[in-house]
Predict the structure.
Amino acid sequence: MPLGDMRTPLLSNSFDVPEEPLPCDPGNPTVGILGSGDYSRSLAVRLVACGYRVVVGSRNPKHIAIGQFPDGVQLLTQREAMVGTEKVVFAALYPEHYHTLVGLRDVLAGKVLVDVSNATKLNSGEPSNAERLAELFPESRVVKGFNVVSAWALQTGAHDGSRQVKAGVEHSWEEPQVWRSDLYLSSGILGLGVLTLLAITSLPSVGNALSWREFTFVQSGLGYAALTLSIMHTLFFSWDFAFFSFAYPYYMPPTYLLALILPCLVLVGRLFLALPCLAFRLAKIRRGWESPCHHPPQTQEDTANGVLPRDLSGDV
């Protein structure tokens, strides 16, 4: 909750109060606010809209920019403001500035002092901010309130519901877009790095220094990894563009879909060959295995001439 005597406001200086301000009723009491920060300003806007007279007490009222508070709010020193306050005073400043209020005990005696601050630490074992105020001003009635109401809610009022819903919708829309950008960049950078490694190992001086197993792993295993990352990079870039009708103005698929056809076919074919029933047979073929059906049967003449049956199990 923004409190304190801050010169630079976090909220805008335009006071578009949702309701029309009510005319100040002379019978309404004058409400005082200690502090000239964002929360003090928002509280003043709401009180003025409800028809109350408001005085704001600041340590340096001359340093407050013109237009920071709405019309009708008096900006005075802390003592002058408390003298003009009748019953209720809001303490809208940080606890570290409580010592500046010690000299106001006489003018705050018998008045209701509302602490709107929040503690920075929970279950710290130290006295709360309201308890500290009660110790400093024993002749005042210190109460706690408004600490769960934000400055934004005070300034905009109940009519801001649609604006808050819209902000939530925009936030929920922006979060997947952020993830999309992160995944798009990550897959692209990783794919480029793997392709660079493949290019380096293709050099004769580097390839000759690798064993056959290492060279096969780099060219085959990392090659498919680079292909997968490149496909992911393109998919994250296009996202769901292909599912909208405006992506087919001339009844032709988008360019990125055409570019993905061949890489996806290669990847699907590789996954098909990775099935156990095919992978085992391919491993045997790589080791020199040949099918018996591709060779003529052993004849009696071959047996008589001492020709031994061909070893079809492959070279050791």
Remarks:
- The longest strand covers residues 53-58.
- Residues 1-22, 158-172, 311-316 have pLDDT under 50 and may be disordered.
- The two ends are 78 Å apart (CA to CA).
